[in-house]
From TrEMBL:
<dbReference type="GO" id="GO:0043020">
    <property type="term" value="C:NADPH oxidase complex"/>
</dbReference>
<keyword id="KW-0560">Oxidoreductase</keyword>
<feature type="domain" description="FAD-binding FR-type">
    <location>
        <begin position="352"/>
        <end position="469"/>
    </location>
</feature>
<keyword id="KW-0813">Transport</keyword>
<protein>
    <submittedName>
        <fullName>FAD-binding domain-containing protein</fullName>
    </submittedName>
</protein>
<dbReference type="InterPro" id="IPR018247">
    <property type="entry name" value="EF_Hand_1_Ca_BS"/>
</dbReference>
<dbReference type="InterPro" id="IPR013130">
    <property type="entry name" value="Fe3_Rdtase_TM_dom"/>
</dbReference>
<dbReference type="InterPro" id="IPR013121">
    <property type="entry name" value="Fe_red_NAD-bd_6"/>
</dbReference>
<feature type="transmembrane region" description="Helical">
    <location>
        <begin position="180"/>
        <end position="210"/>
    </location>
</feature>
<dbReference type="InterPro" id="IPR017938">
    <property type="entry name" value="Riboflavin_synthase-like_b-brl"/>
</dbReference>
<keyword id="KW-0406">Ion transport</keyword>
<dbReference type="InterPro" id="IPR011992">
    <property type="entry name" value="EF-hand-dom_pair"/>
</dbReference>
<dbReference type="InterPro" id="IPR050369">
    <property type="entry name" value="RBOH/FRE"/>
</dbReference>
<keyword id="KW-0249">Electron transport</keyword>
<dbReference type="InterPro" id="IPR002048">
    <property type="entry name" value="EF_hand_dom"/>
</dbReference>
<feature type="compositionally biased region" description="Basic and acidic residues">
    <location>
        <begin position="503"/>
        <end position="518"/>
    </location>
</feature>
<feature type="compositionally biased region" description="Low complexity">
    <location>
        <begin position="525"/>
        <end position="541"/>
    </location>
</feature>
Length: 747
């Protein structure tokens, strides 16, 4: 039987926003507007029950009741009681009616950011680039878009170069035009543009080649054709258009003109006397005609099978349809071998990328037959964990943040799906998969009634090296938007996982092996509340992951618990700091990485309580950017975010242990604050070195901070300019702080 908690302790979390020196809180005008919404009868008093009712109303709207697929299942009456207790603590009074002036003073003490100020900062953020001088604006734009522009310029330039070459050749040679008319000029111009188009099209399908290029940061910036598959899709459409125009030029132009009896002399002069007379059907039946028409038809079929509607309807048909590329490539190689108009060159453009893709597909098929035993465990009603030990004969080493293609023969032999690697330790690799689709739902069913089973999988990878330069910096700032930040979140979790193994952590000792699922699974049964235990027993053996938060206190988000930069002399020699900023439009998007981020937060809290010399310092900041025009919603949203209890130290609004900010982050201010902390860190380290070396002290080298960004270009331009400004400031003030801005692209 579930046991209630009528006296669950509620506290006002010490959210960093309440102690910030750069935040403007609710203005008197906003406070009066908020109170007017509560004082319906205009009697000068605020009824506590009305405030409580409004809080419950906004809670019901902002925090929907858990559905069957959600993992949070607990007594909502306890939540209501704790929330009301929290409201009482915020108001500091038990009276039922509060004078308007006194209530205004209470609201002012809540220290809720001004909604108008948030809107003003958002407008200023949008105009940041516009306020920059012309040269700085150009440099910032080029830092974000430059490499992509250069690469696309290279592709388009090669298309134009080969197309114009063929255009000039056949337009200025009278013999070709006399024999085949306008059609040959159009067809050969398109053919010239197709040479580099198909080269890059096929090359963009090679995962190993792109992974190899990522070993060089600068090269990977230029050759980012697998950015969300956008380049592959667009260049495929260009290739189909050029191929269709090429066919139209021949079928309606050169074939018609060349089969005309009055042009036989010109055709004989161009192709030889044995090529006449030649009716239209002979052109179609010839090797160039047959291979061209067939390959174009297959290309259109492949195009139709690649439509999003087909992919959503049947993923196997989508993947099997792509196998048509091999007969298409073979037909195109044979297309020009007759050498009617010029020596065959198309095959030379196709050879190298085709070899790469062919080898990769053969490897994938063989890996699908060479299966690996893995453990599949259902962690909660949304997530499954797959743990596999990679055979030692595999050539590639796996790293967190990379992705692999996963095949589960029990579901389908032909389906391979990409998933980000969550953790790696030696040959052991772990994946955490959200079961939000048809294939992943079938994967979850393989867990059976126990929620855990042994399965066989095929693993192809790894691909997409995880920001190789990330490990070059001991101080990093990661900024990402939406799901694009997932690879970096995997890197963070892997850093924390290894730090726990090396220096101890929640639920295990130093350097001792632990069960694979401890990273995301719940705490031991004896640490659960009776309520949680009873509910877990009746939920089909699916653990309730939020209960593992009971091992941390509700004051976890207090920034005073984090290592202080001016105490850097006490830090471990291998100290690493990572500031993680994740922007999402709606708070529901935070659920994608909530378990992973909470695990990192729990470990960080444990280390801060148990370590004198910190090794790893991860500071997680999430930002919900959706606009809230209604002031009451804005106020109650912040109240709910600051509400914490002993039983549930996570925010009732986001489910996260770390603090969440509402509104667009001010990265100008965030980076300035980071710079000030780095100055303190730098000064403390220099003092420590000076005391150790005494008279032999020498000025140290520059301290480099890596700023990694994956998101909207406009924010990238702001960050690029700010990093350049801070680096210049670092040399001017003698601190030698350098901020290196890097755009990250994940395939």
């Amino acid at each position: 039987m579930a046991v209630g908690h009528p006296h669950r302790k509620s506290i006002v979390a010490d959210h960093p926003i309440r102690s910030s020196k750069n935040v403007k809180y609710l203005t008197d005008e906003e406070i009066n507007e908020f109170i007017d919404d509560l004082d319906h009868d205009n009697d000068g008093y605020i009824n506590y029950q009305e405030v409580e009712r409004k809080l419950d109303q906004e809670h019901a709207e902002l925090v929907p009741k858990p559905s069957a697929h959600h993992i949070i299942q607990r007594d909502h009456s306890d939540d209501d009681h704790a929330r009301h207790e929290f409201l009482r603590s915020m108001m500091g009074s038990n009276t039922k009616k509060i004078p308007r002036d006194e209530f205004a003073r209470m609201v002012r003490e809540w220290k809720i950011p001004s909604l108008k100020q948030a809107k003003k900062e958002e407008d200023e953020d949008k105009s940041y680039i516009k306020r920059l001088p012309g040269c700085r604006r150009i440099r910032s734009y080029w830092a974000v878009h430059g490499p992509e522009i250069v690469f696309l310029g290279l592709v388009v330039g090669m298309q134009l170069a080969f197309g114009i070459w063929q255009l000039v050749k056949y337009q200025t040679t009278p013999g070709y035009r006399a024999a085949f008319g306008w059609g040959v000029v159009m067809a050969k111009t398109c053919a010239g543009a197709l040479y580099p188009t198909f080269f890059f099209l096929i090359l963009s399908m090679s995962r190993y080649f792109s992974t190899w290029l990522r070993r060089s940061y600068h090269i990977s910036r230029f050759f980012n054709w697998d950015l969300s598959q956008e380049f592959h899709i667009r260049i495929s459409c260009v290739a189909l258009l050029l191929a269709t125009l090429h066919a139209i030029g021949h079928l309606t132009g050169s074939f018609v003109h060349g089969s005309d009896p009055k042009n036989e002399d010109a055709v004989a002069a161009a192709l030889g006397p044995d090529m006449v007379p030649r009716p239209y059907i002979d052109y179609v039946r010839s090797l160039p005609g047959f291979t061209g028409i067939t390959s174009l038809g297959l290309f259109w079929i492949l195009f139709l099978l690649s439509m999003p509607q087909v992919r959503k309807w049947n993923y196997e048909i989508f993947q099997l349809g792509h196998l048509l590329m091999f007969p298409i490539i073979g037909l195109m190689m044979a297309h020009g071998t007759a050498a009617l108009l010029q020596w065959p060159m198309f095959g030379y453009f196709l050879a190298f990328p085709t070899l790469l893709v062919l080898v990769e597909r053969v490897v994938r098929v063989s890996l699908g037959l060479h299966r690996i035993k893995a453990t599949m465990k259902v962690l909660d009603k949304e997530t499954v964990e797959i743990t596999a030990v990679i055979p030692s004969e595999r050539l590639w080493k796996y790293k967190a943040g990379q992705y692999i293609f996963l095949q589960v023969p029990a579901i389908s032999f032909f389906q391979w799906h990409p998933f980000t690697v969550s953790f790696c330790r030696g040959n052991k690799m772990m994946l955490h998969i959200k079961t939000d689709g048809n294939w992943t739902a079938k994967l979850r069913e393989l867990g059976g009634e126990s929620g855990e089973s042994e399965i066989e999988v095929g693993i192809n990878g790894p691909f997409g090296a995880p920001a190789q330069r990330f490990y070059d910096f001991n101080h990093s700032i990661i900024i990402g938007a939406g799901i694009g930040v997932t690879p970096f979140s995997g890197i963070l979790a892997d850093l924390q996982y290894n730090d726990d193994l090396d220096h101890g952590g929640p639920n295990h000792e130093v350097a001792s092996p632990r069960h694979d699922s401890e990273v995301t699974a719940i705490a031991p049964n004896n640490s659960r509340s009776d309520s949680s235990s009873s509910e877990a027993d009746g939920s089909d053996n699916v653990p309730e992951s939020p209960t593992r938060q009971g091992s941390v206190g509700p004051d976890l988000i207090n920034k005073e618990k984090a290592p202080h930069a001016d105490m850097a002399r006490t830090f471990a020699e291998d100290y690493r700091r990572v500031d993680f900023h994740w922007m999402v439009r709606e708070r529901n998007y935070l659920l994608w990485l909530s378990d992973l981020l909470n695990d990192v937060s729990m470990s960080q809290d444990w280390h801060r309580d148990h370590e004198v010399h910190p090794h790893l310092d991860i500071r997680i900041n999430t930002h919900v950017t959706a606009k809230r025009k209604k002031l009451t919603t804005h106020v109650y949203r912040w109240l709910l975010e600051m509400h914490r209890t002993d039983e549930h130290p996570a925010s009732p609004l986001t489910g996260l242990l770390n603090p969440t900010n509402f509104g667009r982050p001010d990265f100008d201010q965030i980076l300035d604050e980071h710079y000030e902390e780095m100055l303190k860190f730098r000064a403390s380290k220099r003092n420590q070195t000076r005391h150790k070396e005494d008279e032999n002290f020498q000025e140290d080298d520059e301290l480099k901070v890596g700023v990694f960004y994956c998101g909207a270009p406009v924010v990238g331009e702001v960050l690029a300019d700010k990093c350049r400004e801070l680096s210049l400031r670092g040399w001017q003030d003698g601190s030698k702080l350098e901020y290196h801005f890097m755009i990250e692209v994940f395939g």
